[in-house]
Design a protein that fits this description.
The protein is mainly β. Helices cover about 10% and strands about 40% of the residues. The strands form two sheets. The protein has a six-stranded antiparallel barrel. A six-stranded antiparallel β-barrel has the order 7-8-11-10-9-12.
């Protein structure tokens, strides 16, 4: 379990591809990590298999490669890193499992004086879980949804001029403060880039209960 508060920007040091999996080597400050620990890499919960000098390795199964953007990582790529939360830690973001629900793409970003507004495509299969002012994890970063394509209360930040995509495409927007721009990969993500999405797990539980 994670909180979506990125601890560090790591870097992919190596990628080994196999028939049905891959092995990642990630550089980062993991001095207190041990084999078997969980670390979220761009929002994907991975198990540490070995600790090296200033880096760690993790195996990624085919299912994870197919359902996330980890399969496109190459050496030198920056990645968001977060170690699993401890019961005594503060919950600074929201409950994040590290299980990617869908991948999406950046549609546009609008720089502001002190923050950026980023519009992200919203896949149909998870759109029912996303609400304005609700939580969503984008590449493992806990963010608040500031606008939705199907919300009639959209303000001037959500007009049609702010998108390069299909007019009928669903999307959501998030506002990135300077700290998020500086400390996470979202500061450099550009239109067309793929990102991992994880919706608030509480919404899934509520849906399950209501259906029974």
């Amino acid at each position: 379990m994670f909180t979506g508060i990125v601890e560090e920007l790591g870097e992919v040091a190596g990628v080994e591809h196999y028939a049905d999996s891959a092995r990642l080597t990630i550089q980062g400050s993991v001095d207190d990590a041990s084999p078997g620990d969980s670390i979220a890499v761009n929002g994907v919960c991975l198990t540490v298999t070995a600790i090296l000098a200033g880096s760690f390795t993790a195996d990624v199964m085919r299912e994870t490669l197919d359902r996330s953007s980890l399969g496109s990582l190459t050496p030198g790529a920056p990645v968001n890193l977060e170690r699993s939360v401890r019961l005594a830690d503060r919950l600074g973001g929201h409950l994040v499992q590290g299980h990617v629900d869908a991948t999406a793409r950046i549609i546009s970003r609008s720089p502001g004086e002190r923050w950026d507004i980023v519009r992200v495509s919203l896949p149909d299969e998870i759109s029912r879980y996303v609400v304005q002012k609700g939580s969503i994890a984008v590449d493992g970063v806990s963010l608040t949804v500031s606008a939705l394509s199907d919300d009639n209360t959209d303000d001037d930040n959500t007009d049609d001029d702010n998108t390069d995509g299909n007019a009928d495409e669903q999307w959501f927007e998030v506002s990135l403060i300077p700290e998020t721009l500086k400390r996470t990969t979202l500061g450099d993500r550009q239109p067309g880039d793929a990102v991992n999405l994880e919706v608030d797990v509480i919404a899934k539980y509520v849906e399950r209960l209501v259906r029974k």
